[in-house]
## 1
Amino acid sequence: MSTLPSTLIDVLIAALESAARTSDGTEAPVAILWPDPEGQWRPILPVLRQFVPSIVTLGEFHPEDQTGPAIWIKCIVDRTLPLQGLGADVVPIVYLPLVSRQELRSGSDCPLALQPLIELQYRGSLWHQRNGREWTVEAFLTSEQGLGLDVAADTRTREAMLRSLPVLATVFVAHLTGRRLEAEDFDRLSIGDPIRDLLEWMNDPEAFRAKCDLSRWETFVSVCQRDFAFDPVQEGVETAAESLMKTAGIWDNAWRRFNDAPRLYPKIPVLMRQVKPLDLLYDRSRLPQENEAQERHLREELTLSQGLPHEEACKRVIVLDAVHRLRRSWVWAQLGESPLAMAMEPLSRLARCALAPCGGTTASAMAADYAGGGWRCDLAALEALAVNSAPAEMAVVAGTVRSLYLPWVDKTARRLQELASQDPAAWRDLTQGGDAEADTCILFADGLRFDLGESLKELLGARGLKVTLRHLIAPLPTVTATAKPFASPSSKACAGGAEGDDFTPLITSSGQPATTVRLRTEIARQGIEMLDADEIVLATSTNQGGWVEIGRIDEMGHSIGVTLARQISHELEAIAGLVTRLLESGWKRVRVITDHGWLLVPGGLPKIALPASVVATRWARCALVRGESQIEVPVFPWHWNNQVRIAVPPGAGSFIAGAEYAHGGVSLQECVIPELVVERGKESVNAKITAVVWKGLRCRVTVETNAAGVKVELRRNWRQADPVETRIAAPKAPNEDGVASLAVERDELEGSAAMLAVLDGTGRVLTHQPTTIGEAR
């Protein structure tokens, strides 16, 4: 799908949204707190609220402007007072001008007016830099976590940057990259712009007139008359909207500007709907009525295609995409008014993939063919279901996905089952367990299907990391109880029992079921470092490797079904973020593994009848066969005990009616799983501490590095997160000889253990070394 250019507003919104995301097992924050000690961001609030209406500002009580004191904000956050745009699933953003993070954390010393907000930092989430400092405008523009721009650090540039902020907010980032930005560049943005003024006036004539003094208003009218052949006083906004829809001279420039950022002018589309096109001068792509008519036609065509035979349906969708693909570049797509046209891009990819089932004369060859490209069919189905649209359009897209996708999944699953059943032992031998490795942290991502593994590889590669991906085969049945113990380093400590009612093996040393807690105990017993995904610490003992778990993909699939498709991108971002933090904390490599894949089909998998008398336990995609019962569905041996028989539904069927999301059976989606090995890229910056010399409470640290702008600091403990709270000595930049001098001001810390950390310009730890304060070395 196409990617639209990003502005400062786009990147800022994405950064604020990321603060609302949580990892596995963590409740969502009740609010995002945005401290701004200098009030630098205030000029951007009016523009930002056009995109994020759920922002409230600390200040005097003006509820019409969504501004009020701390107690009013508490009521908004707790939903005891209403706020327009604050839905049940929306996390409010609390903007705190002239408030620092430290003030909120100071407890009883916090100003009385702010004290109602203190507890929100524990129930909510603070938006701040990775190094713990508040986001200033300059930091956001220059940091890789923000825009990554090259901005001069002098006072004139900083002042010009802040002056231009309201205009800078809507400039495409691509227009600012590739050069050093100085005061003149920012000042140039603030100079009068006739087209911008025209669009602002069309969007809200009264507000525009109110902010103009007499001289500026007269100049605006004069420019409109001269350059646009239009009189705003005599002709009004309706006439301007009519001109905007025609292909004529400078009005084309105005249209392109509107097309670049239409959400900045939300009232202009309303005006355009009032225009009745009468002649050929109108550009049909600029007519909202034209787009609406084509959306209705596409809805009808897609609905009809769902009743066609599979091959015909695929070909019909491909033709419809050729007809409607141009509309994805129309402004109405940016405004969310062309959901079906947007869905046609992944739907057409799905249709093309679904015409070609995975090949291979053996189960192994079929799995390899799927890993070589067949997974793209699954990914296209997910991306089509993730297109944001109203329920009516979503129903059409879901029905179309089902008609294209289900026959392909069913056909490939039946072929895989046929090949695997010819030699179940050979299929079982394809499975591979996981062993711990020195300097390697194993990241277990629950339910990371192979197509998502490919997406994760792309995501990590974009971060400059080196990623190797291969496919593995999950053990049968493809459920967590069986597959997770096998994937973990504790697999050799497990064995199958005689029954396996819930498909869980036993810990051989105790004879107890291999539950998650017992698995973690067995892993730790091997000397493997057990990590918490929420509190990654700098790696201190990596000889036996590490283990960390993340992910809610499987959990969400079972609870929300097809809606999972819209959550996938957030989960992948969380996994990628954890991989990055692990590498930053000192691990040489991260190996991402999983337990099983899954099937996801809107409308549910086809129901397969299975008599209760022949099975001991039954799930949607697998069942435990009772004794020697004879059944008419495929049967495979349990991975942990080949004397135990597992029944699976033929093809993409389900033993339970209505299951949209399920796993446990034999299909490419469930059995072929990814393994990613992630390392730092060859060009990554690096640093090395070559000498540490203490003289009393002053430490001289010598650093070798290929990075510019590094600093050295002294911390109390090993935590990567929240360094401000653990800092002993403020960060210092090494001199030209690579030496940084750090002073410890508190005498009582002498003899205490501490950690020296070398940081890059964003606060990321490049290397670290333990030390004892005041020791002679």
## 2
Amino acid sequence: MIFMKSIIRQTGSITGIIISLLLMLIFIPPHGKAQSNISGIIVGKKNEPIAKASVVLLMARDSSLVKGTFSAEDGLFSFEDISDGEYLISASFVGLQQVYSSPFSIKDRDKNLGKIILIEARTEMNAVTIVGKKSMYEQKPDRLVINVQNSVASTGSSALDVLEHSPGVVIDRQKNSISLKGKEGVTLMINGKINYMPADAVVELLQGMNSGNIEKIELITVPPSRLDAEGNAGYINIILKNTNQFGTNGSFSATLGYGEGWVSAADLNFNHRREKINIYGNFSYSRVNKPLPVFLNSKVSNQGIILETHFLGGRTETTELLNARIGIDYQAGKKNVLGVLVTGYQRRYTQTENNEVFMLKNNQPDTNVKQSNSELNNWRDITVNLNLQHDFDKDRRLSVNLDYMYFHNNQPVFYHRAYFKSPGNFVYDETQMSSKITPIRFWIGALDYSQKMGSHFYLETGVKRTDADFLNDLGLKKFEQGSWLTDSSQTAKYRLNENYSAIYASLNMTMDNNNKGKIGLRYEYTNSNLTTGDNENLVDKHYGNLFPVISFSHKLNEIASFNLSYNIRLTRPTFNDLAPYIYYLNETTVITGNPALQPALTNTLQADYSFKKYTLSLSFSRENHSIASFQPTVDSLANKVDLTPENLDNQKLVSVLITVPLEVSNWWSMQYNLSGIWQQVIVGGNNPLKNAQLNINFNATESFRFAKNITAEISGFYQSPRLEGVYTQKGYGSLDIGIKKKLAGKNGSLIFSVSNILNSQDYVLTTNHPERNLVTDLRIGFVQRTFKLTYSRSFGNNKISEKRERSTGAEEEKGRVR
């Protein structure tokens, strides 16, 4: 009740009444008939019932897996809440032959298949595993599904590599961000639960995640109302393998590679399911050591004097990532499931660098600076989720989530600079040390209710409350006359207290076999207050927004369909973007935060057309107050450049996405994806700027099967130049190969792969606006050519059980931590 009263206080009396009405739906009994059920009985040759037989429901068109179950003691089995369509059943039991039913159709009515008879097999077999092969890409009304589990190059790569080769996805390693269809602000989910680690570590997490453990990736461009409105580009949901089986099972893998430094990774997944208890977990570790070359040239004009800065950076960095996740679900009776999920994470980043800066005045050497820097950036966190799921009956479900999250970041950086007026002519040197200690806490409560209302309607509704407490303790010290002296002008503590409340309702409608629709509405209200010791209200914001989601799907015939959708999304500034900090890139360039940032709102209209396995997607979006990172502010008198996040006036995007799969033969298949994005960026202020550009993203995969146990894959992508606020990012791409050998025994494989063969993934940003004193050229070598060898094997029972659909209540919070 305290939680509900807090929601009502924040959102007003009208919203409070809406909440009450929505929660009353919990006590409304279901009406009409639910989706169809499929049932039958498994018997032997003498008509005796067979218990514990494996029964699998498959799609008739491609034999892809829908659900699995086991027959009861009396041989009966059933699949509930099945959508209209064409299906078939596969049944098997140890020592008996596997049997397939004839294809059958269900349309708004239950289907009883009667007796399915199993007879003795000619040879003894230990177990039967059903594998449904799906197409690489599946277009659904609100998302594009990428089935990566059979990809050779993907198995030998990381989750980040898989994403970078996915249609419409762009990885920005400079900003540690992921964009989808030209829009940044993507929120990452793993197994339907938001990944809450710091945004600047998400890319490292994906780099260390072995894609051999990934079943599929969902690119959700039209998120439902039950998901938070945060993230203007939508969600990327990574579905991991091996979490839905009886007994004890799992998988492990190990990778060793070399580029211009050693790459190593190990990953273990396990699942133990017995009767009422399911225990599951994942442990992973990765270590990457590599150089990071940086080149930066800039030019500033001041009263006829042209000042040029040339920065040559030689950095060696090591990233160690440890990620742990363990959970337990307990079936308390037929209607209740209690769950606890604990996740822990630690990322230790260290770097040493020796840099050199050459400064010229009117093309003549002026000053030479040599820098020796070192940095530690250590993030750790722990998250605890408590979950209760109660099924009133087969048509009504209530889920309650409570989450607590704690982050801690320690980031000391040491700088040493030696100044020379000319080569060998030493002037002076200086030593500085900056510090940043950042603890962050979240408390989250969420209540979700769903109900089927007859065969045509499905209702979802719920409420949520989030409280966040963020502290940024910044300091700068200078070493002078044998002691460290604090620079009070660069030392401060910033505290951000923020809370936001939400309520939503969504109605799914099935008009007939060919037409489906969804109408959803979400309301969020935010209070945000940033204080320092000198200013108690540096930022004090209070705002509320409505976020509608409307979609319509029409099935033209058995092989073609059309989808249309509209939604509004929100992008809140990350905590580090709001709270100022200082990082010296070089003598003339400083990276810092911006407490004046405003949230961005995005309106998106999207249309999708599917024909067989081919898809075409069109979308238009307008984002007001877009947040662009690392935007330059130039002080021409001091020859200084501050890189800060800024609100652009607006950004418009028009995107086209085409996916084309081709089957050349039974040993050779192709997949081509092409996306085109027209992008317009408008920067306001006293000196407005408008940029527009068309960019192309193309990726392709060629898959070959040379023998029964040997497969190979050639894949690559190209991203043409695109806009980054006032910057233009030059084109880049990658060519990769992979060879996979299935090993003797059970479920083992060895993969050799080479990534970025052409060394063509350099990150290059340029600006050429002399009227704004913005003439820069930045080049960073984030990715090197790397050779990798991966061994993987799964173990344990392979009998299928039905997954528990479970998500936490914390839908966005860690994505805002940076």
## 3
Amino acid sequence: MSAMEQLMEKTQLSRRKFLQVAGALSATATLYGCSGGGDGSQGVVTAQDNLVLDKSMQVVMASHPFNCGGRCELKIHVKNGRMVKVTGLGDTPRAEGDAKAEDTTVYQTRGCLRGYAQIKRTYAPDRLKYPLKQTKARGDLNGFVRISWDEALGTVASWVKEMQARQTALGLKYLPILDCGVCTYRSSQYTWKTGTDVLQYLGPTINLTGAPSSENINFAKYGTTGTGAGGNSLVDMMNTKFLLIWAQDPCIKAYNNAFMLTKAKEAGIPIVTVSTTLTDTALLSTGYSKYNLPGWIQPRPATDSAMLAAMAYVIYKKNLHDDAFIKQQCFGFYPGDTVVSQSTFTNPLTKKSYSGTTFTVPPGMSYVEYLNGLETKYGSYAGVLKWASDLSGVPTDIIENLGIAFGTTKPAMMWAGNAGGQKTNNGMQHCMSTICLAAMTGNTNKSGGGPGFDLGGGPGAVSVGQPAFPVTTAVASPQIKVGGNRIYDMIKYGRDQRTAAQLQADVLKSHSIDLGANASLHVEMLYGAPGIGGNSVNASPCTTKNVLALKLPSLKYYVIHEQFMTPTAALADIILPCATHHERPGYFGGYYNYCHNTVIAPMYECKTDLEIDTLLAQRLGVDYGLKNGRSEFDEMREKWNKATVNATYKALYPDATLPTFDDFAAKGVAEFPLSPDKAIVGTQSIAAGKYPTDTGRINFFSPYYFYRDQDLGISYKRPDGGYYRTAQLPMPVYARPYEGYQDILEGKVGAKGIKYTLQFTTNHPRNRAHTVYDNVSMLKDEFPTVVKMHPVDAATRGISNGDLVYVFNDWGCLKIPALVTNRWKPGIVDVQDGSWYRASTSETYEAWLDTNMDGIPEKQVVPVDVGGCPNSITHDFDDGPIDPFLPAVSNNHFNGNLVEVSKTHPDKK
């Protein structure tokens, strides 16, 4: 009897059910099984178990909560206390033959390779099993020794107490501890959990923060539409007449993007993708034949905002803009634009409502003046298009036709947001440009249109209450927020990218602490906060410099919670092994509402973050932890019992109700139908003049950003008349990045004396969720770390497919294989996001890094990175509007830097 026949006989599946399960098996068969783990006392899983859905197995509803842009619901099959199979929830009941309902009404978040690799990750051979202490130099893996939890937590507590004593001795009003756990991607996000990091209950600490996935879009949204304005529902793309996807690859992400795009394509909706690389999304795109537009348009990295500016210029000059919408809903488009704010939004610095404040756009700062200025600068209509074309590499007729198509088609949808275009030094202007192009054409509040950023994955139908029993009665202190991109400078000099005057003013305003005229923050201890340390070394720019930072002698102690020996954990003094999400329960919402049940008991000596927090708190005299024998699952139940269906969804579906918690836990997901005719328009409920911005309107010019430091009393000004916070204007303009294609045109010579002629990108890969899964060998074997380059670039350097090459610039050097492909235009190479930094034991490299904050790089001999972390070749010079009073704090940049590729070591003459 064949394996498939056994499967059908054992489970007695219907033909339809068999096909569904067989589809799941075909996608995941090679990922079943387990390896390593436990103490050997658990039952053996046989090869037969990998072929047969054994009905005696326990099926636990779980999820894939990693930060890959979406979520998927999974069934974990458990036998003898071990995870042995993963299948998807593709068998959600449907009415037979109801194809329309199956296609569009419920978001079936099908798992991908990452989700189905859960077993391989949980039982990975490099899983941390017990607490470790470094006995040699930081970063020496041979120096780690096993210690008990009692010794580990006792040592950490003694270090924290030493920092408290140092605080007193140094006369500081904050602990000299830098909490680095929030600055980058955490591998799991449980929004139900209350409380904060234990150290916050001891007084103010310093918080290294930021969000590389979305920093620039967060800044852009704050200045234009406000953070309270949401995107349209994903199904609303079925209502558009033209779908323009900009610098996004949603097919790599979850929440059914590829499925919905396929349905839009089948419906005949023209789809155009603008991307520096040929992505899966670009391959799915149709083009727009009416306007002679191809499915894929490829600009050079960090030149998107020049294209968008030229498109806006075309729309304005051809009178395709929506004048009525602009005058009613927007501010700063026309010269001299004046508005009395009706917004109840408060100034984050003064805490006063903006309502009643009169705003006038300064001379020369309106969008029309910017567009007319382009014509003046470049001589004519044709000259503006040529300027954008020369920068971006996109033909002038394509740019012009794209502008006409977006300005003419009603409604048109701009799907942009937290992907490549915003991960550059001028990413804020790129994001402001997509938002303002949507507003300029009147699409912002329209079904089939939208505000010009991400589409929502689902209706977000649940409003969840707070748990009945908080985990602490102690009072947490607010953390002093600093930019997550300057780890080295924070540890050595106590400064991020702000000037001393800005840092002094910010901390004085936020914490009433005066750091003095030469403001800096003293750092002696680094703590990787609960929720996984974040792999900060890998995920923040300039990894080469970050590695040096954690070896600085001024950093006395470094503690981290982790599950694996990541590049960041390898540099710690003490590692506290924490449980994976399968070894604890969790609830999180957003696009969907998941109940993640505990699948297996914590393995080895691992503990949950909450357990670690509680045990450490006891040693520090902090009241922290669940009370009266309550469990995390009890907390989840309490929170769900206080949940309600939110008003927006209830208005569309009056009969909508929430399942009981028991039903929710049993199914693992609470799904809410949403059809295209009831698609939620994220800004539709916002009345004219009531946007959550300073002006109450959609800003083409942001008064808050322009006058930001005036509210803090900083007296010096920029040459353009604005108050200094960033070198870039708070407008949807093309801003020259710190480094980019213009430097190639001008023959810029780097500190190493090299003229770099290539730009690099960092696309999202199929096999990782940022840095998560890079240690899963079967995924890495299928998608190895390579540098992808065009055949022309490879040929001129004598490089063949598979050659081991050096990818380098002033800041670092990678040694990885080359993949020669025509998915990239000449002049662009790609090293995909998230590969782990690994220092060569045999080769070094002369990097030039600014390690004393004087703006002049110094030579540093560093290891060649043989792991292929693309952040090893990013700089750490930010010019974004770092602002601790906003939801976004730091700036991000992971695309567009200059590099060179060579078969020989670049330092060999």
## 4
Amino acid sequence: MIPIEQILREAEGAHRRGALGDAKRLYRQVLEVDARNVAACGNLAIIAAQEGDLAQAESLFRRVVAARPNYPEGHNNLGALLQQQGRLDEAIAEHRRAIALRPDYAAAHLHLGNVFKRQGKLDEALGSYENALKLKPDLPEACNNLGVVLQSQGKFAEALAAYERAMKLRPGDIEAAYNRAVALQQQGNREEAERAYRDILRQSPNRFVYVNLGGLLQEQGRLDEALAAFDAALTLDPDYAEAQFNRGVVLQHQGRLDAAIEAYKQSLRLRPDYIEAATNMGIALQEMGRLGEAAAAFEHAAKLRPDAAGPHNNLGIALLAGGQAAEAVAAFQRALALKPDYAEAFYNLGNAWRELGKPEGAVAAYGQALRLRPDDADAFSQLVYQRWRACDWSSFAGDQQKLLDLVRQGARVPPFFLLATAAGSAEQLACARRWVEPFARAVVPLPAPPPVSRESEGERIRIGYLSADFHQHATAHLAAELFERHDRGRFEVFGYSYGPDDGSPMRRRLERAFDRFVDIRPLSHAQAAQRIRADEIDILIDLKGHTLNARTATLAARPAPIQVNYLGYPGTMGAAFMDYIIVDRIVTPPEQQPYFTEKFVTLPGCYQPNSMREAAPVLPRRDCGLPAEAFVFCCFNNTYKITPQFFDIWLRLLKRVPGSVLWLLQSNDLARRNLRREAEQRGVDPDRLVFAPVSPIAEHLVRHKHADLFLDTLPCNAHTTASDALWAGLPVLTCAGATFAGRVAASAVTAAGVSELIAPSLADYEQLALDLARTPARLRELRERLERSRATAPLFDMAAYVCNLETAYARMWERWRAGEPAAAFAIE
């Protein structure tokens, strides 16, 4: 019979050689003879653990400690196995038993430290590793793990010392070298970290090291090198999802969105639960204008982490951008149900309610966002604007002052919101410059085009109009005839649309009005700029300025050699990438030029084009909700333009003109309720306020016939509403303000031939309104004059207007071709 000791030695030899099958057979022979043999039982347990049979391993280790309760190695090994199973409290108990049996047992201290580290008990882990190293200073695992804990505590110098000690104890230790490189990177020592990563890679190419190196290079803006590192990781492991994800991040930073999306798709194929990849893919798709796909990506992210608010918030942003405001509201509300203190989601919810025309909901949501982030200039400016839309004047003076203070303090506020405030031209310029600064900084301009973009100098000048409003919109109603009348012998006219196709007759008309009508909604800003450049546009005319949904980033890429701010925004864009602004002498007197970054191109008459209107048949007064005989003061301006000061004037006029009514546009029900309350507080019957619902343009135009006098507003005038009223023969009483936005109506009434309707002061405005209401003959003469001059007044002479504008475009083009910089000029 072979002695047990010999069988055990043969088993241990087989174990060392890796012949685990032989080793197990021999250990079992030992146990058949001696069931309490600790060495055979323990080693068999170790093999079982190596092979993943943790239940069998635990059973065998427990036999060891049952057979020899005072055997520290048995308790330590059992503790290590329990730790492997995630049973950390039981593991701690076994390691402590081992230490109690042998206080100088370094391996037990090491394993106890590992459990504490997993539990996040860093101080206890630190103590255990230090104990292990006191007992056995040459224990590299303890040095490495000590470094990990110190690094977690932000003690980088001590962590680095621990890693370097581990590397000396075990030369070629990749784990310690890798940890040291990560610590150097976290410490901000990028140069040394890069050297460390590259040293490791020289020893042994490793996918994790390549990914970390790529991240380090990305931090430094070395994007091509970062991409090469991630590609190297994928060469080693084509199924490495994290490397694909990081490739996507770099490609997205480079603006290579199609490639980035493909990388994110690959990472999701490899790891379907990769929420970060789904999120980033959604962002890239949204940036490209592929909003449906973006929403699907965010929905996938939300399913991956249903208890997380972020994916629902992102989904809402995509839905809102795609015009699905109601669905966006639901997404933001889901995000807030999961995270009630989510300020960003409240802000976005406010945006969604705004798009739905629900200022009450918008005000509440922005207010909540501001409560959570009191210094949020975006939330405050949106809140204030929605209060103005709702005619909520409970804190009007304070809101105005705070908004102006934010601008003066350097906060980034949407420039549009300043138009209806007391902000002067200098403040509007500062606000606009601050608004466009991120676009100018982030967008890489396209290379400058050659001096002459096409071979033949006799070819037509190519002009492109850029807008989101090529549908049923005020801008379209003003400019449709302009687009149609352009001289096709001199100009080739492009329309670049990024707004919705509402299927209206106006949309179809505009599609026919251009030589080429290009829908750029699916294109990213960079792609849209590339498309405009590929079309060799000579003069790009932006019709949005700083209004909602503007594509400032497209303009910042400088797709055209000449770029013009026109019609949509009554103020400067504050951008070096805009060359000219189309104005007239009334809206921008020459002394205003220092407050515009664009050079003035001054047209004769009014800067505003006015297409021929078509009105519907006249309805009886009663169908408009108006009394049969009352004098009708009218203001169809947007409600945000109505201020307490002007409302006071209007209500005093109602008191002094018996039986008169004030006819206003009902843009939202909250404004109607608030204005009725304000009237009652001023001692006027709220029923003397009549609200006109928003109607199709033809119906809206004809109802002007029932009004007697249009009352304008300041600081922001009537714009299209003034032209509509004058075209309908309704006199418009206005004051000229200090800025472009406050002088548009003055320009329009002058070009219509009734400049006596520009009051020099508010007192004169009120008195003139009263005088006109009391002298029907004078009002009738004004009406008749407007009716007679409709065909001849400069305001409605589109043939002359188009000729003047084309002369301006030609002069811009001549200057550029001659290599001359943009300069102000006037068309006489």
